[in-house]
Amino acid sequence: MILGLIIACELGFWIAILAGLAARYILQAKRLGKTLLLCAPLIDLVLLVAVSVHLGAGATASWHHGLAALYIGFSVTYGHRMIAWADTRFAHRFADGPAPLKVTGRDHTQQCWTDFARTLGAALIAAGILAIITWWVDDPNRTEVLTGWYRILGIAVTVEFIWALSYTIWPRQVAVPSGYTPHPSD
Fold first, then answer.
1. Which residues contact residue 171 at a Cβ distance below 8 angstroms, ignoring those fewer than 6 apart?
2. Distances in Å between the alpha carbon of 39 and those of 12, 31, 110?
3. Residues in Cβ contact with 51 at an 8 Å cutoff, skipping those fewer than 6 apart
4. What is the arithmetic mean of pLDDT over 146-167?
5. Which ranges constitute the DSSP H helices of the chain?
6. Is-contact 163 112, C-beta < 8 A?
7. Which CA distances in Å does 171 have to 42, 105, 160?
8. Under 8 Å CB-to-CB from 85, ≥6 apart: which residues?
9. Residue 27: helix, strand or coil by DSSP?
10. d(Cα 168, Cα 1) in Å, to the nearest integer?
11. What secondary structure letter does DSSP report for 151?
């Protein structure tokens, strides 16, 4: 049940975003677009309440409940960025907005460190949700599986740290068009 709800919430999240952007750029209904975009965070709240009610009703926690906490943490910290990413592409495609830029060099490195901070925040939110659920259920036998998620969160943060560090040491270079010969003043 919870896995199906997580999948439905993820689909609902993207449907709300796509519908909101379509309303904004294709239908020119900015108010409707904004309302639909605001539905995306409400979907996370629905999932959190459903998980809490499910466990509160006596269910034993499964990996699905941990996945829900992970999904909520990442949705909270990365949700706005994902919406902005999609918004840029919709604006370019349907409203003659500027083409999305591929970030390179120092800007890309800074973006990697911002992603590290977001991932750390997501892990802390997910860990907090797991801790609160474990405390609320107050039955270690029913919530034992949730403790394994702390390790997964640690791995996600570590991988993001290594990723950001690697681009600090070896920054992403600007792509040079094939056949390009630099001018002496370059």
1. 104, 105, 106, 108, 109
2. 9, 13, 30
3. 2, 65, 68, 69, 133
4. 96
5. 2-25, 30-56, 63-94, 105-137, 140-143, 148-169
6. yes
7. 38, 5, 15
8. 100
9. coil
10. 43
11. H
Q: What is the pLDDT of residues 125-143, one digit of tens each?
A: 999 999 998 998 888 898 9
Amino acid in position 14: W
For tokens 């010969």, the residue is: 181
Is 0.85 surpassed by the pTM of this model?
no
Structure tokens, 54: 């499910």
pLDDT tens, 24-35? 999 999 999 999
Cβ within 8 Å of residue 26, ≥6 positions away: 94
CA 127 to chain centroid, in Å, comes to: 16
**How distant, in Å, are the alpha carbons of 15, 39, 127, 129 from that of 26?**
15, 19, 40, 38
Nearest to 110 by CA among 182, 59, 167: 167
Nearest Cα neighbor of 13 from 42, 34, 50 is 42
User: What does the block give as tokens for 147?
Assistant: 């403790």
In terms of Cβ atoms closer than 10 Å to its own Cβ (0-12, 13-18, 19+), residue 1 is exposed
